[in-house]
């Protein structure tokens, strides 16, 4: 039997490791998602072979975290992470094991994993290894820590946020003792780097049920220890679902009344994310006073307009709101979408005027752009020339 989710490449990797006398199995999210009948994001393999052995057996490898036992295998453009069975040593700072130890048994490897549903393994022939009742917990839609939850969160505080982000990604509940332990350990999340927090929050925003996760964040007190966590969630329900993770970050900024710059800095957002949330925040302030103007439609990307209108509606449910389709139509009906669409350029202006190139060219392109956008002049070279010659002469 061939396992449904496994691509040929990963089957091949396991086969080669087994032929060399090692154990190798699928682990982690890929197995969980297979059991849940969902498409896995990425495929992880755990093996008894040590990294150097993996590299000798499988070619095309990249060392990504060799000290932690992980070798990345790229087959036909598909990345597969192959990690040596390992346990983690002491955690002296609730965030990273001081050392990892390679071990020979799969059981020990599964014991270090966070939740029962993430501690499943599967052989290449589709046989499940379920040592901690992960299948039953998944049937009950429960997120349960492997072993003693308090200890597990003391070891690595990020797991608390992972539990909550899975409540969104999968729309599962958090098992009582696990939840209780989050309440007790919430403050430890302050030890975790923002890079790791951001990865989990991105996934939380894009999950099936972000509202559930935000409820957990508030109820456990974990949210209060996250940077710039919004104090009010009144507008959340009408803002959901988030179409992208960056919409989630815009929610942080608007609902939390923090400036986009603060949010971007606190969570080390990418430039692209920062620009998006800044645009939404700026457009939102305008929208609180009036409908979008022609200049707004021109200035903002349609994704910004749509997100802003959604946030506006969430904040002011009684005020007139445009539909996404109306926004799209308004945007598309502009005479031009950008200055690049003008049918004339600087060279034309220089030729028509007989003047030398200079700052005036850029200024005049700006004026033409404005005139075309606002319908004072058609975007047609002859019309623009006429309009330009008239006004240019008058000004000089
Ligand atoms: P996703 O589908 O969102 O990638 P995932 O479960 O695969 O979810 P990853 O971060 O890719 O999440 O981690 C892969 C596996 O590694 C997990 O399924 C889990 O077994 C283990 N793992 C990841 N992070 C931790 C952690 N902080 N503590 C313990 N085990 C972890
Ligand atoms: Mg994964």
Q: What is the CATH top level name of the largest domain? A: Alpha Beta
User: Span between N and C termini?
Assistant: 83 Å
Give the overall shape. Answer: elongated
Amount of helix: 40-55%
Count of helical stretches: 20
Average pLDDT rating = 93
> What class, by secondary structure content?
alpha+beta
Biggest sheet character: 7 strands, mixed
The fourth-level CATH homologous superfamily of the largest domain is Beta Polymerase, domain 2
Question: How much strand content do the residues show?
Answer: 5-15%
Bound molecules: adenosine-5'-triphosphate, magnesium ion
Number of structurally distinct domains: 4
Radius of gyration from CA coordinates: 28 Å
Q: Keyphrases for this structure?
A:
396 residues, alpha+beta, Beta Polymerase, domain 2, Hydrophobic Seed Protein, Methane Monooxygenase Hydroxylase, Chain G, domain 1, 4 domains, 7-stranded mixed β-sheet, two-stranded antiparallel sheet, binds adenosine-5'-triphosphate, binds magnesium ion
């Amino acid at each position: 039997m061939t396992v449904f989710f496994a691509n040929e490449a990963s089957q091949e990797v396991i086969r080669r490791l087994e032929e060399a006398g090692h154990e190798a199995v699928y682990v982690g999210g890929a197995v969980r998602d297979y059991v849940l009948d969902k498409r896995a994001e990425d495929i992880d393999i755990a093996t008894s072979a040590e990294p150097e052995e993996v590299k000798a057996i499988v070619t095309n490898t990249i060392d990504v975290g060799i000290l932690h036992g992980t070798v990345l295998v790229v087959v036909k453009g598909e990345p597969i992470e192959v990690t040596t069975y390992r346990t983690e040593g002491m955690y002296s700072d609730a965030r990273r094991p001081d050392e990892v130890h390679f071990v020979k048994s799969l059981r020990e490897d599964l014991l270090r994993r966070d939740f029962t549903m993430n501690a499943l393994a599967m052989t290449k022939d589709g046989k499940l290894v379920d040592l901690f009742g992960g299948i039953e917990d998944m049937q009950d839609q429960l997120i349960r820590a492997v072993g003693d939850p308090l200890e597990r969160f003391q070891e690595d505080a990020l797991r608390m946020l992972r539990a909550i982000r899975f409540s969104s990604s999968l729309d599962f509940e958090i098992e009582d003792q696990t939840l209780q332990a989050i309440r007790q350990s919430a403050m430890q999340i302050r030890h975790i780097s923002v890079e790791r927090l951001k990865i989990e929050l991105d996934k939380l925003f894009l999950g099936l049920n972000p509202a559930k996760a935000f409820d957990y964040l508030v109820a456990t007190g974990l949210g209060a220890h996250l940077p710039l966590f919004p104090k009010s969630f009144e507008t959340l329900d009408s803002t959901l679902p988030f179409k992208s993770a960056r919409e989630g970050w815009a929610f942080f900024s608007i609902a939390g009344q923090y400036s986009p710059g603060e949010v971007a800095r606190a969570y080390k957002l990418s430039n692209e994310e920062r620009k998006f949330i800044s645009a939404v925040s700026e457009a939102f302030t305008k929208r609180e006073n009036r409908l979008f103007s022609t200049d707004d439609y021109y200035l903002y990307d349609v994704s910004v307009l749509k997100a802003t209108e959604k946030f506006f509606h969430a904040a002011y449910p009684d005020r007139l709101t445009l539909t996404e389709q109306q926004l799209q139509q308004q945007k598309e009906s502009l005479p031009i979408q950008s200055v690049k669409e003008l049918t004339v350029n600087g060279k034309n202006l220089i030729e028509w005027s007989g003047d030398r190139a200079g700052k005036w060219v850029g200024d005049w392109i700006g004026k033409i752009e404005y005139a075309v956008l606002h319908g004072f002049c058609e975007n047609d070279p002859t019309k623009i020339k006429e309009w330009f010659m008239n006004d240019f002469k008058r000004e000089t």
